[in-house]
């Protein structure tokens, strides 16, 4: 039995309008979507392009308002972004004029923390993502993987109860992505009380990282199924060879392929 | 030459700039401009002699330069104009930077500001100048107003464009961190627009100078304009050319300094 959810979205719908006044175009991104995020839970949302994964995350982050439905964090309506829900975007979006340390300390700076505290916490977060020694580097001096790790540190430094990640490894090559999966699992094993929502279109990534996987169907975006991942924690990348992993993988692929064939 | 050393997909990219052969490049660097200068001076001397005194020769301009730099009136003229320029330019910057940032970040503001800037850039300012003179009188106030009219659009437009092309991700990051309106400006908008601000400052100064020269040579005979007209009236063409050269040197130095600022902002 799960405890009261940290974030709960209930029957949420969202429509996007585009085009001109004469020929308006309406896209239903989400239709009656309900998802709960429990305490200390790692939740992945997986689905094909255009199924509304990112819209769900932006609604959870408070960056977007739904057209209908309720969105609660700790039982209270979400009215906007909060430092309790840190976001890692698809692109690192590091400030190019600031060093890695200053980028990581950005949230602390905006929160008005003392400079010495900013430095201490930023350096600890940088070390936790394996970037020690690169504090004074500028974003343009980093590789894609390093920049995304700095973006992760920028979110972790605030010590948020919930981390929302929007396809953070999507633009990385397979080797770097695998390395970052290992590092994220390692960070997670040291902070098991934290919850996370991880958006991805990569089924393997979703299985190796998550406790539960929300499989979304496209056009309009709906929750097709929520799959439990029966792999124990702490996880290792080698768990991808276990029979449980392969069973979940086959099940999710069969769902996704059924939409592709329709 | 730039050599790239990327050791693996997840390591830092190191740029090694190979030492260029400065020694070998020095001679052409000095020789060609020097030859060009000598060629220009010879061409100028030939043309001046062919025009029979209507164009001062290089020698008479050099003599005039020696006279001008010893003349208190010449320096006083430069000072009078520079004071107007500094006042007008600083006011233009104080107006132009916030206007550009607001126009770039708020659609409603852009709808109001952009048409005004387009009109100001398209309409010949010479047409507007007499109106300014009638309203503000024949003096420094008019000069300052004209400088502002010339400079502000060229400060606003690049800054507005710079802000409009700012990556959307920065806005998302600011929102995700619950940045206040002031924090958005201080930590995102202004630093992200630093290149366009530097470009706007440079273009604005160039147009402020143009405005100053136009108003002083056509309507309000003050400072540099008064000196140029005085030399012209007394047919002191060598001194007049030398004075214009002095003004050009000043402009060259100031624009050079702004270019350094622009380059620093681009780094």
Give the helix/strand class of chain A: alpha/beta
What does the oligomeric state look like here?
heterodimer
> Biggest β-sheet of chain A, characterized?
6 strands, mixed
Unreliable sequence segments of chain A: none
Specify Rg of chain A, calculated over alpha carbons. 19 Å
Classify the beta-strand content of chain B into a percent band: under 5%
Question: How does this structure look, described?
Answer:
The complex is a heterodimer of chains A (262) and B (267). Helix content of chain A is 34%, strand content 26%. With 262 residues, chain A is α/β, with parallel strands linked by helices. In chain A, the strands form 2 sheets. In chain A, strands 6-7-8-3-9-10 form a 6-stranded mixed sheet, with helices on both faces. In chain A, strands 2-1-4-5 form a 4-stranded antiparallel sheet, covered by helices on one side. The longest helix of chain A is centred in the C-terminal third of the chain and has 19 residues, at 243-261. Chain A starts with 6 loop residues before the first strand and ends with a helix. In chain B, helix 2 crosses helix 11 and helix 10 packs antiparallel against helix 11 (237-266). Chain B has helices at 22-50, 58-70, 72-105, 107-122, 125-136, 140-164, 168-176, 181-192, 194-218, 223-233, 237-266, and strands at 2-6, 13-17. Chain B is mainly alpha-helical and 267 residues long. In chain B, a hairpin with a 6-residue loop joins strand 1 and strand 2. Mean pLDDT of chain B is 83; it is low at 1-22.
Summarize this entry quickly:
Chain A is an alpha/beta fold and 262 residues long. Chain A is built from eight helices and ten strands. The longest helix of chain A is centred in the last third of the chain and has 19 residues, at 243-261.
């Amino acid at each position: 039995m799960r405890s009261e959810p940290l974030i709960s979205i209930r029957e949420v719908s969202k429509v996007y309008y585009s085009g001109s006044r004469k020929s308006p175009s309406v896209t239903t991104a989400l239709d009656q979507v309900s998802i709960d995020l429990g305490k200390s839970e790692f939740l992945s949302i997986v689905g094909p392009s255009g199924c509304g994964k990112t819209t769900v995350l932006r609604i959870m982050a408070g960056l977007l308002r739904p057209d209908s439905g309720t969105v609660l964090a700790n039982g209270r309506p979400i009215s906007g972004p909060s430092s309790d829900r840190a976001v890692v975007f698809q692109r690192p979006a590091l400030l190019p004029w600031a060093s890695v340390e200053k980028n990581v300390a950005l949230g602390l700076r905006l929160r008005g923390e003392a400079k010495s505290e900013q430095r201490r916490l930023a350096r600890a977060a940088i070390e936790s993502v394996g970037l020690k020694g690169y504090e004074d580097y500028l974003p343009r001096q980093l590789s894609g993987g390093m920049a995304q790790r700095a973006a992760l540190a920028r979110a972790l430094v605030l010590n948020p109860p919930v981390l929302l990640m929007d396809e953070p490894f999507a633009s990385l090559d397979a080797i770097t992505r695998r390395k970052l999966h290992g590092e994220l699992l390692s960070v997670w094993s040291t902070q098991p009380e934290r919850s996370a929502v991880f958006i991805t279109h990569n089924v393997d990534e979703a299985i190796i990282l998550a406790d539960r996987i929300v499989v979304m169907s496209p056009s309009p975006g709906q929750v097709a199924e929520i799959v439990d991942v029966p792999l124990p924690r702490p996880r290792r990348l080698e768990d991808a060879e276990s029979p449980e992993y392969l069973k979940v993988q086959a099940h999710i692929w069969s769902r996704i392929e059924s939409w592709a064939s329709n | 030459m730039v050599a790239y050393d990327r050791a693996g997909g997840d390591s830092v990219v190191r740029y090694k700039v190979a030492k260029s052969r400065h020694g070998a490049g020095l001679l052409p660097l000095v020789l060609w401009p020097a030859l060009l200068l000598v060629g220009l001076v010879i061409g100028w001397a030939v043309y001046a002699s062919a025009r029979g005194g209507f164009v001062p020769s290089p020698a008479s301009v050099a003599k005039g330069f020696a006279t001008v730099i010893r003349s208190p009136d010449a320096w006083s003229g430069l000072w009078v104009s520079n004071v107007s320029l500094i006042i007008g330019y600083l006011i233009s910057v104080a107006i132009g930077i916030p206007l550009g940032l607001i126009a770039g970040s708020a659609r409603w503001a852009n709808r109001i500001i952009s048409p005004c800037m387009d009109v100001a850039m398209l309409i010949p300012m010479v047409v507007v100048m007499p109106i300014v003179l009638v309203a503000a009188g024949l003096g420094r106030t008019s000069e300052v107003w004209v400088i502002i009219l010339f400079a502000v659009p060229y400060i606003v437009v690049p800054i507005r464009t710079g802000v409009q092309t700012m990556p959307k991700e920065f806005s998302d990051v600011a929102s995700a961190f619950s940045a206040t309106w002031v924090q958005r400006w201080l930590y995102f908008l202004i630093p992200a627009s630093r290149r366009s601000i530097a470009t706007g400052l440079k273009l604005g100064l160039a147009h402020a100078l143009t405005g100053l020269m136009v108003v002083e040579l056509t309507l309000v005979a003050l400072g540099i304009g008064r000196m140029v007209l005085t030399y012209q009236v007394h047919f002191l063409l060598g001194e007049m050319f030398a004075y214009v050269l002095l003004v050009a040197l000043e402009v060259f130095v100031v624009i050079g300094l702004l270019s350094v600022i622009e380059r620093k902002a681009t780094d």
